[in-house]
Amino acid sequence: MSTIDASFVSARPARRADWLGRAATFCYLSIAAGQLLFTAFILAFYYPASLSGDFAAWNTKPLIKGFVAGDASGNLFFAVHVLMAAVITFGGLVQLVPAIRGRWPQVHRWNGRLYLLSALMLSLGGLWLTWGRGTWLNLAGAFGISLDALLILAFAAMAYRAARARRFVEHRRWALRLFAVASAVWFMRVGYMAWGIATGGAGIGEAMDGPFDLFLAFANSLLPLAITEIYLRADASGTPAAKNGVAALLAIGGVIILAGSVGAWMMMWSPYL
Ligand code: HEM
After folding, report:
1. Which sequence ranges are marked TM in the entry (predicted)?
2. 130 C-alpha vs ligand 1 centroid, how far in Å?
3. pLDDT one-digit tens code per residue, 149-205
């Protein structure tokens, strides 16, 4: 193993048997289950229609714009967007598996480059779909998702810079932050479902303009980011009590994510397959 490979691998914390380590693994597995369902939906619903050019088939699912007859560039942007959506969702899960990083660093590097490219395309393309094509229901939602795009671009740049400079501990932190905000679109769907199951949909407006909609418009990226930040701090320098507190937070978060993911599969994704 070269020096670079050795420092690369040592950037990942040793597998730990403490509660924080266990809770983080559980939370990751819940996210993985939910994101694999999202990936399966994108592959089964959007890939056949987008790759065969049957763009009109997108509109069998409720969308703000989706396919618009005569809007060639808008439809093309949408097609690229949904094709890249599966790449980033599946690719992010692969990047976080320690065994892959340790055993096959080349896979991590190439998948990492693909992940960064898809992050760039989805955030810039998403900004164009929102503001250029005018795909939005209300301004809070449009600003919330635009903030997410800016966070993705900023964290992708930081993660890339740190990796290029071989600062792997720093790279891991920025990469985790990037994963948190790049998962915002998925998190929003899961968040709606978990909230709907718990409250019957309190605060959700007809045009997605209720108090909960406004909250989730920004919380879809800021909440996962805040939890990631708390986890990173507790992991690096937390007291045993703080670590256990964050472990409980991650465990509860994991259960909520599982419930929301099952709800999203049943209500949002599988009915269109
Ligand atoms: C980075 C991860 C992202 C993923 C995985 C993703 C995924 C998707 C998917 C699957 C759709 C199809 C709609 C659906 O079936 O639910 C979609 C549509 C869309 N996305 Fe994204 N997206 C991402 C980022 C973004 C960003 C950052 C923006 C805006 C800045 C954005 C703006 C849009 C817009 C405007 C649509 C069209 C919605 C419609 O017509 O109903 N996306 N995205």
Report:
1. 25-47, 76-100, 112-131, 137-162, 174-195, 215-234, 246-268
2. 9
3. 999 999 999 999 999 999 999 999 999 999 999 999 999 999 999 999 999 999 999
